[in-house]
Amino acid sequence: MKALVISPEFGLQNLAVVDRPDPTPGPGQILVRVRAASLNFRDLLLAKGQYNPRLQFPRVLGSDAAGEVIALGTGATRFKVGDHVANCFMTDWADGPITDAAAKSAIGSDRDGVFSELVALDERAVVSVPDHMTFEEAATLPCAAVTAWNALTTAGTGPGTTVLLQGTGGVSIFALQLAHALGARAFITSSSDEKLARAAALGASAGVNYRTNADWDKWARQQSGGTGVDVVVEVGGAGTLERSLKAVRTGGHVALIGVLAGTGAVNPLLILMKAVRVQGVFVGSRAMFEAMNRVIAEKKLQPVIDRVFPFVEAPAAFKHLESGAHFGKVVMSL
Ligand SMILES: NC(=O)c1ccc[n+]([C@@H]2O[C@H](COP(=O)([O-])OP(=O)(O)OC[C@H]3O[C@@H](n4cnc5c(N)ncnc54)[C@H](OP(=O)(O)O)[C@@H]3O)[C@@H](O)[C@H]2O)c1
Question: How distant, in Å, are the alpha carbons of 34, 39, 84, 105, 204 from that of 98?
Fold first, then answer.
């Protein structure tokens, strides 16, 4: 089978689709023929050596795939041959609060990922794909969508709440669609007016260009009637956190997710004087994935795919993600 491997060292130039032995499903595992996979910012960071400096080479990258079950290992009973499934980001987080063991069971970094034609997966770390979705669409869910769902639901997002989203990448566009589905009003920032128009078409109540309006925190407060938003889905990290803390209301919630915006200083006074809850988010459990899929199925939500690359062009897909030109998710078809 073919797999996308990084070797012998970090660098996008060291990504290659190579031949690897076919896996066989062990006890409790299922064998999945991967039909589509999606890229996350994490994969870029991993390939560049900015996520896991101790990564062992060669390593199969990838945390997100969807495909068809083609064989069952002994004792595997949750799925049958022919089922359409997607993997979970972590193998050991079925339900409940995150644990150290769950966090360490993330795939595609310390252990091989799913950017390959065949994968043997622990059946407990797999979910059924919503019936209305293509494999390309389902492959966008395991990391970005579950992260957005975890961030929003942990923050208590619901009818009448306001949510601020940053940029129009994978996590933020899922957060926009899911916030809308949960009955919240979403405000969104972007470096591009054209992308803001597309976000409005997806249900964003208002948008602002963070390049031409650096004071997007003030803008967000105005949008929410002057008090500040209930929830910020914070994907920028140190470079945006201070403004996010200004944009959120007293007693509001900042879901800390990403590192897109580089470095910056944060004044802790903003957190304590406004009694803000700053909650780290690390993707989510299988139970969260399944709960999200029920809402996605009920609302017939369609993930936003920017572009689909053939698997052999995986290095070009990484370059496309790196360019930041995308809106939503970048997918590979196998
Ligand atoms: N903690 C977790 O569990 C978890 C899970 C998933 C992702 N993440 C992290 O969350 C972040 C987003 O991931 P992703 O996969 O959605 O990335 P992505 O799809 O690559 O998102 C890229 C987009 O982010 C926007 N952006 C870049 N710099 C920005 C800035 N300074 N301010 C506001 N927006 C900015 C840009 O949107 P515009 O072009 O519209 O400006 C850009 O196109 C990454 O740091 C990733 O590592 C964390």
Answer: 27, 23, 27, 11, 31
Question: What CATH number corresponds to the domain at position 191?
Answer: 3.40.50.720
> Which residue has a Cα nearest atom 13 of ligand 1?
41
How many H helices and E strands in the chain?
11, 16
> Ligand 1 centre from 58 Cα, in Å?
26
pLDDT at position 265 over 90: no
As given in the structure block, the two tokens for residue 279 are: 């909650």
- The residue range of the domain holding 44 is 2-140+303-333
Same domain, 6 and 133: yes
d(CA 330, CA 44): 12
Residue nearest to atom 25 of ligand 1 (CA): 167
Q: What's the CATH number where 51 sits? A: 3.90.180.10
Q: What's the 26 CA to ligand 1 centre distance in angstroms?
A: 36
Q: How many angstroms does the Cα of residue 260 sit away from the middle of ligand 1?
A: 5
Whether ligand 1 lies within 6 angstroms of the CB of 189 is answered as: yes
Q: List pLDDT tens digits, range 165-212.
A: 999 999 999 999 999 999 999 999 999 999 999 999 999 999 999 999
Give the closest residue (by CA) to ligand 1 atom 36: 167
Summarised one tens digit per residue, pLDDT across range 277-311 is 999 999 999 999 999 999 999 999 999 999 999 99
What is the tally of structural domains in the chain? 2
